[in-house]
Amino acid sequence: MLDIEKLDKENKLGKLIDNRWNESEPLWNDIEKAYKKNKAVWQNDDSIVATIPKRKSKVRDNRSFLAMESVIAALTGRPSRPNVLPTNGKLESGQIALDLQDLFLETYKSLRMKKKIRRGLRWLFLARLMVFKMIWDNDIDNFNLMVVDPRKVRFSKKSTNSMDTDVAIEEIDTTIPDMMERFPEQKEDILKQAGGKEEDHMIANTPATYKEAWLTGGEWVVYKFREKILKKEKNPYWDWEGVLFTKNELRKFETLELPAERKKLLGLARGVREKRVERANRYQNYLANHFDKPRHPYIFASMLEVEDRPIGETSLMEQVNPLQRNVNQRKRQIADNASMAQGRWVVDTKFVESKTKGDIQAMKSDPEGIIFGDGVSQGITIQSGRDLPVMVKEDLILSIQAIDSLFGTQPTFRGEKEGSETATGRALLREQSYQRLTELIDIVDDLHWEIYNWELQLIKVRYTETHYTKILGRDRALRIIQTMQDDISDGIDVQVIPGQIMPKDRVYRAERALEGVKNGFVIPLTYFEEAEFDNPMETAKQLEMYKVSPFTVLDMDPEDIEKLRKGIALLQEVAQATAPTDPRAKAIADLKNKTQQIVQSDEFKKQPIARQRQILTQLKGQFNTLSQAKPATQPVAQQ
pLDDT digit string (tens) for 593-612? Predict the structure, then answer.
């Protein structure tokens, strides 16, 4: 392990940082080359067609851009859901774990992490490496996530992930005034290195770059501007001071299971810390950290690796670039051929002496023009273009399909419909595309896992006062989570549910739920949830109330009710006028009214249950007799 204090005293710390930066330079040259080449293709740069003759088509069909952005959109469709495991089975511990899960998801939205992850994934595709940095943002008094240009960082040349690199160095672009504001005690050293007067730099806002070097695995951070070490400090995201407990206090603290009891004891110990510092050797130091050891705040990832190094051997963009060039070439051939559809004019000036070349060109460009002049019938002939060979179009299609296969972005994956397909069939095709993205899905899941764990570490170290997080639930209810560092017990484990980031096929899920409702397998509420109604529960309630009585959910004034009454009366009149005459109808109606009167009478209600059943059985028999009786007259057809 390097002795940072000793190296600083011997003025060797700056040389150490420069050596660590330079030893990884060959690897980062690959990043620079890949980024420059891939970005030109991704953004459809004009340099791609710079060598094409002036009158030739410069059309491009950027299928690699479409494929890459489709994959990024899918990978950021939903965040990897955190799964926080409580310290023990106590109800209070379980609630804190649930609150942390909601807090992580809420900060994912409020800090716009989806947009930041999209930017990081673009760096991954274009430069083979994506890098993020967790920071404590004083402007919002909370943790935050930054996207870092991978060309401006260096990690150990044999490292394969964020946790096995001994060094992490970043070049930070800033200005001389901002640097002096951040390092006020080193203002003179900064001006000495930059040269010139402070006033001149304030007016010009002189740009500058300094290095931020995290050494010994993240235990130390050193700031270097040119040849001068501006500052060195222990990792600011690690609790070095801790809480001083007596042996009995620590023993009691370790046996407490309820978070409220642990929080109370921590508060008491913090209150007397200043008195105990003078005799610190008599106390046990409890450090409030989630991580096992200090870490640098960078999170990086690559793909398609073979050797032990931070960046992959290639990228998907580099694999499809030759295919993209072929697509562009075939598209230009088709475009050039299409421009020859009107044919080429061959003009013999011996017969067309009265027309200049400009006159002939004007005639050709006017599709409704008239060719007029002496000798034009003999002097002008049209050579029509020929269709391209079928293999040109077939090669274009094959190249497009190969790009989609490499990225796993078949039309169904992009949401495009091919012919007639069922919801289940579409879901199966999308699942096949997802299999091609397994490595990328794992990378994004791991990224979320590191972000959530970093957030928990910063909560334990920096949430010295209560932080309030507002959560708006699915039922539109507002909930406020109160979080402080002492609320978090040791042993909380943060995991992610793997493979949940891919977006849901809403059409498939809604169609499946609708079929379930029709067949009686699921309730309407399930359909409203799967179809993502704004308020599924309220919609389901209104549906059931409407079935029982429409008037309970419809806001109708007296005028509406009167119009409805008249409409119902008119429908009844029409029904009676068109209904066939049957003598049984009046007798059945009379018997229904009589039955209702009997059942609602006080005398019937006073009868014993057995007698009530006997009366109802008799009335039922009378109904059956009337219903089965043969009508005296046949229905009369209405004219």
Answer: 788 788 778 787 778 877 87
Residue 483 CB neighbours (<10 A): 17
CA-closest candidate to residue 33, choices 116, 150, 133, 147: 150
- HSE-up of residue 238 (Cα within 13 Å, Cβ side): 16
Among residues 204, 254, 188, the alpha carbon closest in space to that of 490 is found at: 254
Pairing of strands 130-137, 142-148: antiparallel
549 is written with which tokens?
A: 């009585």
| Separation CA 635–CA 300 (nearest Å) | 86
**Which tokens in the block code for residue 90?**
């106590």
**63 φψ region: left (φ > 0), alpha (ψ -120 to 50), beta (else):** alpha
What is the pTM for the complete model shown?
0.75
CA distance 287 to 29: 41
| 45: CB partners within 8 A, 6+ apart | 39
Position 368, amino acid: E
Reported in sequence order, the residue ranges of 176-292 that DSSP labels E, i.e. its strands, are: 207-215, 220-225, 228-234, 243-245, 284-286
> Which pair of tokens denotes residue 601?
């009478």
Residue 420 pLDDT more than 60?
no
Per-residue pLDDT tens for 73-116? 989 988 999 999 988 878 888 899 999 999 999 999 999 999 99
pLDDT in tens, 499-544: 777 666 555 566 666 777 777 777 888 777 777 777 888 888 888 7
